[in-house]
Amino acid sequence: MTQAPPEALTNEGQSLTHLPNWRTFFSFSTDHKVIGLQYIVTSFFFFLVAGIFAMIMRGELITPEPDLVDRTVYNALFTMHGSIMLFGWTFPVLAGFANYLVPLMIGARDTAFPRINAIAFWMVPVFGSLLILSFLAPGGPAQSGWWSYPPVSIQNPAGVLLNGEFLWLVAVALSGISSILGAVNIVTTIVRMRCPGMGWFKTPAFVWTVLAAQIIQLFGLPALTAGAVMLLFDLTVGTTFFDASQGGSPVLYQHFFWFYSHPAVYVMILPVFGFFSELFPVYARKPLFGYKVVVVSSMIIVALSGVVWVHHMFASGTPPWMRMLFMFSTMLISVPTGIKVFAWVATLWGGKLRLDTPMLFAMGGLINFVFAGITGIMLASVPVDIHVNNTYFVVGHFHYVIYGAIVFGIYGAVYHWFPKMTGKMYYEGLGKLHFWLTMIGTTLNFLPMHPVGLMGMPRRVASYDPEFAFWNVIASIGGFILGMSTIPFLLNMIASWINGDRAPSNPWRAIGLEWLVPSPPEHENFEELPIVIAEPYGYGKSEPLTENLGG
Ligand code: HEM
Ligand SMILES: [Cu+2]
Questions:
Q1: In the prediction, which pLDDT does 13 show?
Q2: What percent of the chain has pLDDT over 90?
Q3: pLDDT of 304 higher than 60
Q4: Which of 399, 402, 439 to mutate to test the pocket of ligand 1 (most atoms within 8 A of CB)?
Q5: Which atom of ligand 1 is nearest to the CA of 146?
Q6: How far apart are CA 368 and CA 260, in angstroms?
Q7: Inter-residue contact 190 to 102 (CB < 8 Å)
Q8: Contacts of 248 (CB under 8 A, 6+ apart)
């Protein structure tokens, strides 16, 4: 028999036999698609854990008194919430998308170093568990915030070596090593493995943003790791790099820390800019406006991101002339960023908008990002920053970036590529319910933080003056709505992965190499490597993307 049995064929003539077995996801695989999904699923687990901590904090803050948890527990909660959200969720989930999508989008069969890639992934469950397990350490987990500033972080009140702060530093170092390995792999893949014909200006915008983000990892992480190791020495073996009482400098730590951790926000936001750039053209059915300018502006952001870190230290005794320099360089970043925003708006302008769930999340994310950009410019200005430093205004600003833009962008990407990754369609009704709960929850949770911050409510407190109560009640209600919003999301993902309709190879009629292969793609992606002949966003132009494959 040479003919395939008819029941093995679906609408587009793909065989059902290559749907991956669930056991694959618990194994040491070197397939970038398996590793990508491993990253994404693991990171969502940490998202939920850190989200539960956020719920407890918002429960605590619903009344002015510290009645739900005491102050020490509260300190541990915001520290672990922030750390797990950043190291366990945002970086890994974006690494997952980079892993899954980059080889498909550039027409490669895998990444450059598949084994290093797998090792980088398997460090994530290790350091993530270490962070969670630190709740069992004597004295509890770290309590000095995700910044871990000395002198608080080198105090060691429990007097034991294996305390929460120690475990935290080990976890952060592992996270750094994992990210460096991942960055080496992804950068090499993008530079060396683009298929024939894919010059730099035929490379999809998401791939550009991933490259930009990973370059930041390569120059920034060594500084963070150096700072963390020196802190570890101060904590354990009695060096005094950062101990002011012994002639060390706590401000030096702040330089090490922010030299990486400011650029790190672009490691998180740039791939989300990539998602916007991929999604808007599809759902507006128009080419990405100013594609070349959009991709080049990512690289300009990388260059500028390395010269702005001192804006986190305006209130740390930085001399005025230096403040002026860093205020100016920070504000300059709004130029390439603003160019991107204009390009997205121009892409949407006059387009035939299709408001499916991925598009709703992308548009909601763009709106929230514009708002966060405005408060960001305010914070970049020295006089405003001195006034609102360490108030809830800052917390409101960065959650608008991190939740309003980054989480929204990631949700949009999850829905958009879900059919490709799983071979199944998600349920649109549940998706829309998820979007509206997320939008309402975000607004109620994070908007009130701005007025209450301007009124002077300090951050990192378990109790507060009753005059702040009104805004905190609203914020907490918003927080609980956000917590609830994950229920339709998880239901949708699980139910449609198991039971959803079979996805065709290109359900959105999108342009891009990943949509030319079956859903989910075969082990080595392409039987025959594509030969690219056009820019990736030819919507409405009806020119083919490749010379040899369809589409
Ligand atoms: C339902 C969603 C969320 C709620 C209700 C929430 C709530 C909070 C609260 C109450 C704080 C303490 C603020 C302070 O006093 O400084 C906080 C801090 C923080 N959050 Fe969230 N958050 C949420 C989502 C996220 C997400 C998705 C991320 C990152 C991906 C994130 C990252 C952080 C960071 C980095 C801190 C600072 C921790 C520190 O000061 O060391 N949050 N959050
Ligand atoms: Cu910054």
A1: 41
A2: 89
A3: yes
A4: 399
A5: 41
A6: 25
A7: yes
A8: 234, 240, 241, 242
Spatial separation of the C-alpha atoms in residues 44 and 12, rounded to whole Å: 31
State which ligand 1 atom lies nearest to the alpha carbon of 445.
Answer: 5
Q: Residue 156: pLDDT band by 50, 70, 90 thresholds? A: confident
SS3 453: helix
Q: Which ligand is nearest to the CA of 391?
A: 1
Cα gap 67→187, rounded to integer Å: 49
Question: From the alpha carbon of 144, which atom of ligand 1 is closest?
Answer: 41
* Ligand 1 neighbour 78 (Cβ under 6 A): yes
Total-model pTM = 0.94
Residue 500 CA to residue 497 CA, distance in Å, equals 6
Distance CA 63, CA 59 (A): 8
What are the tens digits of pLDDT across the range 233-263? 999 998 999 999 999 999 999 999 999 999 9
In the reported structure, the alpha carbon of residue 136 is separated from the centroid of ligand 2 by a whole-number distance in angstroms of 33
* 546 to 513, 532, 543, 549, 551: CA distances (angstroms): 8, 4, 9, 6, 7
What is the best residue among 52, 68, 69, 78 to mutate for testing ligand 1's pocket, by most ligand atoms within 8 Å of CB?
78
Residues within 5 Å of ion ligand 2, judged at the Cβ atom: 262
- Helices 250-284/357-380 angle, 10° precision: 140
Q: Which ligand lies nearest the alpha carbon of 483?
A: 1
